[in-house]
Amino acid sequence: MKFDEEDRYLACGYGDGMTRIYNTESGKLSYTLVDMEAESTMPVTCLLWRPVSAGLKTANVIVAGTADGMLRHWHATSGKILH
C-alpha cells in the first residue's frame, strides 16, 4: 500500500495483479488498474507514486511491481499503461 503525496489516495496492490486506488476521504474505490493484455497475472508486490513536480508533464503516475519482476508505469486516473 502507498499513499500519494497529498494523502488523497491510497493505492493497494493485490494478489490478482490489480492495483486498486481508494479515495481517503470517502473510503470508496476510485480507480482500478489492470493490464488486460498480460499473459499472466502475478501479485503486485510494490507500489510507488511518482513525485509531483512542475517539470513533469504527467501527474498521477504510479509504478507497480509484480512478483515476476515486471514494472508498469500507470497513469492512475485514466488507467492507461505508460511504460
Textual characterization of the structure:
0% of the residues lie in helices and 43% in strands. With 83 residues, the protein is an all-beta fold. It has one domain (2-81): Thrombin, subunit H, CATH 2.40.10. The strands form two sheets. The protein has a four-stranded antiparallel beta sheet with strand order 1-2-3-4, with no helix packed on it. A four-stranded antiparallel beta sheet has the order 5-6-7-8, with no helix packed on it. It is globular and about 35 Å long.
> How far is it from the N-terminal to the C-terminal residue, by CA?
21 Å
CATH topology: Thrombin, subunit H
Number of domains: 1
Estimate what percentage of residues fall within beta strands: 35-45%
* Main pleated-sheet profile: 4 strands, antiparallel
Give average pLDDT, whole number. Answer: 91
Shape: globular
Per CATH, the architecture is Beta Barrel
Number of strands: 8
Provide a count of the helices: 0
Task: Enumerate the strands of the largest sheet in spatial order, edge to edge or round the barrel.
Answer: 1-2-3-4
CATH class: Mainly Beta
Helix content: under 10%
Strand/helix succession: EEEEEEEE
What would you report as the Rg, rounded to the nearest angstrom? 12 Å
Q: What class would the helix/strand composition place it in?
A: mainly beta
Low-pLDDT segments, ≥5 res: none
